[in-house]
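quick one, 322 residues, struct below
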Amino acid sequence: MRESLLLDVPHRQVVFTIPKMLRIFFKYKRRLLGELCRAAVKALLKYFQAATDTELRPGVVASIQTFGQKINFHAHLHLLVTEGGEDQDGIFHHLASFQDNLLAEFFSREVFALLLREELISEAVKEKIMGWRHSGFSVHSKVKASTKQEAEKVGKYMIRPLLSLERLSFEEKKGKVCYRYGKEAAEVERMDYLEFIARVTSHIPDKGEVTVRYLGLYSNAHRGKMRKRQPDRHPLIIIEEESPRIPRRGWAKMIRKVHEVDPLLCPRCGGQMRIIAFLTDYAVVDRIIRHLKLTFEAERPPPPRVVKQDLLIAAEESAEYF
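---
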């Protein structure tokens, strides 16, 4: 992997996670795991394009994982990604920082589009999930790999087995299988042996199911073309992006697409507003609101806990289609 696959550029591990109530669809319809991987890559490509205003092709090694710390079903993705990608001229654009919240926003849209195409959820369910304060979609890209050796270590971690025999034990008196998990394996999950067998076998891939994929610059098709065109390829020409953060027009455009509201349009005169400063101190914001005697009424109040129960019931009903 290190000698024949990886490029000599910095990499990152990007972990994509979906809400708990949506995981049931990927448990009983496993072909959707491949579509979930494509959704993550699409989100990554859109993020790179928004950050550089250029279509880039990164190198991606994607690992589809279905297990959590307790050997439970937890569909998520681990992607080893180059920090940036090549443009059409073969120049590599390096992005020194990733915005996880924005990547999660792109990812959630792609997953919702997938489930809507499959008719597994409705627009109402989508709106309810988006209305939650924490939707359950998350992206983590803090693990960096500056060298090929470090990237190879990350790759080995991504394809690790679902359990460790060192953490497994059996209580003969109670007839329980024990599995230690968590930080320093301090917590224990106890289960019946049949439950243990069911958990382990639920992660066995279907026939022909691919759990590790090579995409973009690391795809077999791309590497084959490069070997034919440039047998002795010269080192990459790398451009450092001075401002990898999404431009201001980008976030305003995304808000218009998602919420159909222009955040820079004055509600009184209809003129275009400009940003003077960002206030992040809640105490200062509260003082300004009290001074101006402003009151707000939410058009769509946060859903109560009962709504989540309704959504779980809807997910179970949707599972009947399988």
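DSSP finds ten helices and eleven strands in the chain.
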